[in-house]
């Protein structure tokens, strides 16, 4: 498999977020990963302390220039995640547009990181950049419920709302949309959260069709960091292997997440000791220990196909 | 296996040198790798063009401070390679010394990158820093012949010279020395180059013993970049699994190198086409494709124990 990914994300010396979270799993699955580190921090910002340096939009441009001058600016995928800087994001957009011209089949996997649980945790001025420039270029989008609501201006209370929001997101650009988590009630009870996915496909006869799925994902009682980055990377990998089967791609992706998270929480609780809450350092994803699960995830969730519709 | 490595090396967006060369193989072998990127370049400097930014000694210190403030500055290994800056190197030494105080069992694997084939390719003022400050705190060093000669002031013309040079290097600090390549003639002919290794042990009764090995490695007609970084990382891994058996550690390390290099040169020739010399991008190590060889290298190099 000759597949090259350009991933523009954070780097942390210790732990697994951003490029640290995305790179190893993709490499383990045989992808060539070119990585531009948008920042270099000692660790993620959920620890008591964090220190480091950020890459400016200009410096990003310089790195891309180097790649371009050597005529190796050919990629099959681009992957981006957490960003705090509008000018940086705008250079990312320029780069993607140029790479898409160089390879019209390029797939841009975008995690539109803006916030969660009703509040933004990036500067507000990123919303218009995502809405007007980034999302229109994206091919695969992995917003959570809050981000999906923010981008479309619509609230999600019912499954029908979620379906309509995903359709609105399709209209903005991406053919594949996965709502990575929602507050929708799961039929399996309150120990589960609901995720949904939607993919526009073109049938052999030229007509449009749409595959919509939902998954019930076991909740875990802890705050993890870097899981969204791992999710987007694994969705890239599994949609690559199952390009017309969002159900299979999502089952694999969610299953990998589950194995990594279980291993992580078990280890974290061991490290913390009985009755104590694990620290951020103890909760770092058990990434290298999960290699076998990443390579070949045992499927632990079955996605339900929602009623298909044609548009 | 709970083993944490701090690797302070270059990062390239594209390709496999420095941390890009060392991290994946170590992670594949189950090591936790914390990586400080000393530079971020588009690609290695053997391409026609390269662009990027360097980390200053101060910025390195700031990153280390972050790790320390969180009380997670506990490492089993430190790994360093190519550096161009004396103040950066001196900051690295400070960090290694502090980490050794935090964990006296820490093993510092140092590739003393200074030059090759008779000439230096880093600034000359790095040489005294390596000699006086870095090598003395190293536990495992992987110099090539030129670097070993430079550090000891002794020329290597015979295997006996090489053994003496390795003993001199032991006296400077490291208990494990591998001369990664030399011009010594190989018994297997001129298609092979000779590498040597030496490891000092202290027996339970307090007496000292030294295991020395010679490995004959097939030459490959191409210039690879990042192979030294991969070598040092794999020496770290295999001496970890075989701490008292340099013979086996070297056989595994040299075998991995062989598999990665063979896969790389085959692919490079395919891409370049018949009769054409592969370009630097085409010669990038086939790292992710070599995962199985990294995990479990078939032994293709035999180390001979020498006196």
UniProtKB/TrEMBL annotation, chain A:
Source organism (scientific name): Solea senegalensis (Senegalese sole)
Function: Catalyzes the phosphorylation of the dietary vitamin B6 vitamers pyridoxal (PL), pyridoxine (PN) and pyridoxamine (PM) to form pyridoxal 5'-phosphate (PLP), pyridoxine 5'-phosphate (PNP) and pyridoxamine 5'-phosphate (PMP), respectively. PLP is the active form of vitamin B6, and acts as a cofactor for over 140 different enzymatic reactions.
Name listed for the protein in its UniProt record: Pyridoxal kinase
Keyword Membrane (UniProt): no
Pfam families: Phos_pyr_kin (PF08543)
Family the entry assigns: Belongs to the pyridoxine kinase family.
GO CC terms: cytosol
Catalytic activity from the UniProt record: pyridoxal + ATP = pyridoxal 5'-phosphate + ADP + H(+); pyridoxamine + ATP = pyridoxamine 5'-phosphate + ADP + H(+); pyridoxine + ATP = pyridoxine 5'-phosphate + ADP + H(+)
UniProtKB/TrEMBL annotation, chain B:
Alphabetized CDD domains for the sequence: pyridoxal_pyridoxamine_kinase
Cytoplasm is among the record's keywords: yes
Domain Pyridoxamine kinase/Phosphomethylpyrimidine kinase stretches: 80-269
Entry keyword set: Acetylation, ATP-binding, Cytoplasm, Kinase, Magnesium, Metal-binding, Nucleotide-binding, Phosphoprotein, Sodium, Transferase
Compartments, record wording: Cytoplasm, Cytosol
Recorded metabolic or biological pathway in which this protein acts: Cofactor metabolism; pyridoxal 5'-phosphate salvage; pyridoxine 5'-phosphate from pyridoxine: step 1/1; Cofactor metabolism; pyridoxal 5'-phosphate salvage; pyridoxamine 5'-phosphate from pyridoxamine: step 1/1; Cofactor metabolism; pyridoxal 5'-phosphate salvage; pyridoxal 5'-phosphate from pyridoxal: step 1/1
Enzyme Commission number(s) of this protein: 2.7.1.35
GO biological process: pyridoxal 5'-phosphate salvage
GO cellular component, one term: cytosol
Catalytically driven reaction(s): pyridoxamine + ATP = pyridoxamine 5'-phosphate + ADP + H(+); pyridoxine + ATP = pyridoxine 5'-phosphate + ADP + H(+); pyridoxal + ATP = pyridoxal 5'-phosphate + ADP + H(+)
Protease listed as a keyword: no
Cofactor: Mg(2+); Zn(2+)
InterPro entries in UniProt: PM/HMP-P_kinase-1, PyrdxlKinase
Chief site of localization: cytoplasm
GO MF annotation list: ATP binding; metal ion binding; pyridoxal kinase activity
Function of the protein: Catalyzes the phosphorylation of the dietary vitamin B6 vitamers pyridoxal (PL), pyridoxine (PN) and pyridoxamine (PM) to form pyridoxal 5'-phosphate (PLP), pyridoxine 5'-phosphate (PNP) and pyridoxamine 5'-phosphate (PMP), respectively. PLP is the active form of vitamin B6, and acts as a cofactor for over 140 different enzymatic reactions.
Assembly behavior: Homodimer.
Protein name per the record: Pyridoxal kinase
UniProt source species: Solea senegalensis
